Amino acid sequence: MVATLALTIAVFAIGLDGYIVAAILPAIADDLSESVAAVGLMTSAYSLPTAIAAPLFGPFSDRHGRRSAMLLGLAIFCLAAAACVVAPTLPLLLIARAINGLGAAIALPAVFAYAGDLPSPAERARAMSTALSAYPASTLVGLPIGAAVATAFGWRGTFVFIVAVAVAGAILLARLPADPPRTATPIGYIAGGSNRSMQHHGDWWRVDREVDGWRSGADPGSRLTRSARCGGAGRPVSR
Questions:
Q1: What would be the CATH architecture of the domain defined by 2-174?
Q2: 74 contacts 166 by C-beta, under 8 angstroms
Q3: In this predicted model, what pLDDT tens digit does every residue of 65-82 receive, in sequence order?
Q4: What does the domain layout of the chain look like in residue ranges?
Q5: Residue 223: helix, strand or coil by DSSP?
Q6: Distance (Å, rounded) from C-alpha 100 to C-alpha 73?
Q7: What distance in Å separates the CA atoms of residue 204 and residue 232, rounded to the nearest whole number?
Q8: Taking CA 168 as the corner, what is the angle to CA 41 and CA 179, rounded to the nearest 5 degrees?
Q9: pTM of the shown model
C-alpha cells in the first residue's frame, strides 16, 4: 500500500507540473513584463526534456536501482521547481523548467519499473493502474489547483505547491525497501529486446536440433536445455 501511494504521488507531481502552469501564464507574463506567448514556452521547456530524456534514462534505474533513480529524479525535480519560485527573469525560469523536466525524465521510468518489479501480480496490477491514473488526474485538477493557488498566494505559490507534493512523494519513496541494481545492457531497450528475441529463437532452434537428433537415434548427451521449457539461456537439465 505504501509503495502504491508513493508511486502515485510521484507521478501526480510530475504530471501536475506539466499542466498547472497553463493557469498562471497571464500572471507570470504580467509579473515579468513578458508576452503570454513567450511565457508559454515554459510548457515546452518542461515537456521537451522529459519526452527526449525519459527513454535515455530508462536504463539508469537498472544500473543504480529503482528507488535510487526515483529519489535522484525527484530531488532534481524539487530543486528545479524551487528555483522557479525565485527566478527573477523568464530566461532563468525557462532554464529551471528544463532542469525540472530532466528530473521528471529520470524519475518517471523508474516509477513504472519499480511497479513492474513488485513481487505479486496483485501488487503490480494495483500499483501500475493507480500510478497510471495519477497522470490524467493531474491533468484534470492541474488547472483549477493552479488558478486557486495563484489567486491566494501568487504564481510563485503554485510552484511551492508543486515542491510540497514532490517532497511528500520523495518522503514516501525513501521508506520503500532498497532494490539492488540490475545488469544493464549498453545497447538499449529496443535493441536489447531484438537481441533477446533473436537469442530466444536461437535457443529454440538449438533445442529442436537436439530433439531431432535424439529422435533419430543420435545421443545428444541424454540432456535437453532448459530453453525447451522457458526459452531461457540454455542451461542443461536432465530429461
A1: Up-down Bundle (1.20)
A2: yes
A3: 889 999 999 999 999 999
A4: 2-174, 189-238
A5: strand
A6: 9
A7: 9
A8: 100
A9: 0.73
Using pLDDT thresholds of 50, 70 and 90, give the confidence band for residue 183: low
Q: Do residues 95 and 143 touch, judged by C-beta distance below 8 A?
A: no
Residues in the chain: 239
Chain Cα centroid distance, residue 227: 32
Question: What radius of gyration, in Å, describes the C-alpha atoms of the chain?
Answer: 24
Cell output for 130: 493507480
Angle formed by the axes of helices 2-19 and 90-117, to 10°? 150
Q: Chain centroid to CA 3: how far?
A: 15
C-alpha cell at 187: 545497447
Q: Kindly report which listed range (80-89, 101-110, 122-131) carries the lowest average pLDDT score.
A: 122-131
Locus of grid cell 519499480: 114
Mean pLDDT of the chain: 79
Phi, psi torsion values for 233, nearest 5 degrees: -90, 10
Q: What is the mean pLDDT of residues 46-64?
A: 89
Cβ atoms < 10 Å from Cβ of 143: 15
**Rounded distance, CA 118 to CA 127, Å?**
8
C-alpha cell at 217: 537415434
End-to-end CA distance of the chain: 43
* 87/42 Cα distance (integer angstroms): 12
